[in-house]
Amino acid sequence: MGCKLCGKEEFYKGLCKEHYINYFENLVKKSIKKYSMLKDSEKILVSVSGGKDSHAVAWVLKKLGYDIELFHINLGIKNFSEISLKEVKKLSNILDLPLHVVNLKDITGKTIENVKKKHCSICGITKRYLMNRFGYENGFDVIVTGHNLDDEVSFMINNILNWDIVHLSKHDPVLPAHDKFLKKVKIFYEIEEELILKYALAENIPFTTAECKYRKDAITLRHRMYFNELKKYRENIKLQFLHGYLKHKDIFKVDDNFKFRECEICGMTSAGKICSFCRVWKIKKNFKLQSQI
User: Fold this and answer.
1) Is 6 assigned to a binding site?
2) Which domains does the chain have, with CATH numbers?
3) CA 241, 155, 148: angle at the middle one, nearest 5?
4) Rounded to whole angstroms, how far apart are CA atoms 237 and 241?
5) 123 annotated ligand-binding residue
6) Measured distance CA(176)–CA(195) in Å, rounded
7) How do residues 31-71 score in pLDDT, each as one tens digit?
């Protein structure tokens, strides 16, 4: 079958490459407008990992005319981090965008390889802290990540199973800025991973298919499998679950009067005396967060 709009060779679900690209970009534009995600005046930092999702974020935002720069963290994972950085540099060159690279080992003296357990948890803490601190210290207004619909519903299920009310209250597509935390946005909030992959292939976006060796231990991957199995019986199960959350999210509301403070070591916003990053990496004194461009 050909494209249902023009008759050209079908690329995906009844659309040729050109019309699929237009379809995907319209999905993104609708999400940005629906949730008031971004403003033309904002300086945007896009966190890129080397994978298809974050690279597609940078690609589509550049095409839509937003003011963006790229940020990457070298975590020092053998047979993964070097490959990821190579693809990030390709993306930066093609899009002609500034690329800021931070090396974890330069800051902590260690890499994720040196962590004995809970690699994914510590990796998440590390990424959130470093991209937020870099953005805050360098005058950015918002951070955009590549989290997609599959990520979001799997995180929700995991937090429900653990009855983690605090994190269940934070599954919005836009997390507003407060204290030294920048605004955070997920432009693929309502878009499935499969659609993002097809967009990346249609646009010839450079990305790595290499997987972090610690990823296999992530429980959220199993939750993704459950949803993909359910999708065989109910096509829109992921989006329905997400919209159900948005409709009833007030049941997970937490105390808005919580008082944040500054970390006694680094000075960034923290829930306790010492922030999670300084605690898990045993940081003893503040440091300059410098990037390689």
Assistant:
1) yes
2) 1-34 (no CATH), 36-280 (3.40.50.620)
3) 75
4) 6
5) no
6) 27
7) 999 999 999 999 999 999 999 999 999 999 999 999 999 99
Q: Does pTM top 0.90 for this prediction?
A: yes
- The alpha-carbon radius of gyration of the chain (Å, integer) is 19
Distance (Å, whole) CA 220 – CA 253: 23
3-state secondary structure of 40: coil
Task: Tell me whether residue 120 is annotated as binding.
Answer: no
Element (H, E) at 175: strand 174-175
Alpha carbons 117 and 108: distance in angstroms, whole number: 17
What does residue 49 show for φ and ψ, rounded to 5 degrees?
-105, -20
| Cβ atoms of residues 137 and 182 within 8 Å | no
212 labelled binding-site residue: no
Instruction: For residue 2, give Cα distances in angstroms to 5, 11, 14.
Output: 9, 8, 7
Distance of alpha carbon 20 from alpha carbon 14, whole angstroms: 9
